[in-house]
Amino acid sequence: EVQLVESGGGLVQPGGSLRLSCAASGFTFSSYWMHWVRQAPGKGLVWVSRINSDGSSTSYADSVKGRFTISRDNAKNTLYLQMNSLRAEDTAVYYCARGSKTVEYWGQGTLVTVSS
Amino acid sequence: EIVLTQSPGTLSLSPGERATLSCRASQSVSSSYLAWYQQKPGQAPRLLIYGASSRATGIPDRFSGSGSGTDFTLTISRLEPEDFAVYYCQQYGSSPGLTFGGGTKVEIK
Predict the structure, then answer these.
(1) Buried b (16+ CB within 10 A) or exposed e, B34-44
(2) Alpha-carbon torsion A115, A9, A42, B42, what sign?
(3) How does pLDDT run across A68-84, given as a tens digit for each residue?
(4) How far apart are CA B39 and CA B86, in angstroms?
């Protein structure tokens, strides 16, 4: 069974940093592209970033470019999102997701709250 | 950047009725890269349709997708109580990545 379990969310002050992790199991992690997608409270889904299967190629939404870094450790079956210079508008549930052009599986999400 | 516009914003229907949800793209989208998701409150989204018209594993056949170019449709032939949720369309493009529509909420009338 495919499982994606996010962790690392929490309350952080504006300008602060947080690193999210996503532990993958039930499939060959190193064979799949992965994404981070976020959802602000009561709002829709917004794509944040993606990484290819070996980590050699990444892409970011304009709203997070230069502040967030996606990475992966295929030996540990884990996806990461390093978030720096956090802003109030980054407050959202962050989902880890598997797929390339389509998201086949989603984690349950981890809540990030940016507030003083 | 392609923008996906979903309509209506809210659809009020009764169980057993047919639901027709629209997703319109600002420019032509490859059908191969158009998907639909269902999201219930407090849950992660779930893939329903990929490639514009193919059902994902385990999705009942009352869900169907159609369309091409800039106009795509998700149809639920007969609404079951568990189908009341928010539905999102999504497309993939080389820049910036995945794009989601704003969502259509299907609520009980």
Answers:
(1) bbbbbbeeeeb
(2) negative
(3) 999 999 999 999 999 99
(4) 5
Q: Which residues of B are less than 8 Å from A61 in CB distance?
A: 96-97
- Characterize A71-102 residue by residue with b for buried, 16 or more Cβ atoms within 10 angstroms of its Cβ, and e for exposed: ebeeeebbbbbebeebeeebbbbbbbbbbbbb
Query: Does the distance separating the beta carbons of A106 and B98 come in below 8 Å?
Result: no
Cβ of A42: how many Cβ atoms within 10 Å?
5
- Interface mutation vs chain A, best among B3, B59, B98, most A CBs within 10 Å: B98
Q: Which two tokens stand for residue B68?
A: 């091409």
pLDDT in tens, B12-55: 999 999 999 999 999 999 888 999 999 999 999 999 999 999 99
The identity of residue A20, as a single letter, is L
Q: Which residue do the tokens 């169980």 mark?
A: B15
Chain A residues touching B45 at Cβ < 8 A: 45, 95, 103, 106
| SS3 at position A52 | coil
Mutate to test the interface with B, among A5, A27, A39, A45 (most CBs of B within 10 A): A45
Terminus-to-terminus CA distance in chain A, angstroms?
A: 40
Give the separation between CA A87 and CA A16, rounded to whole angstroms: 8
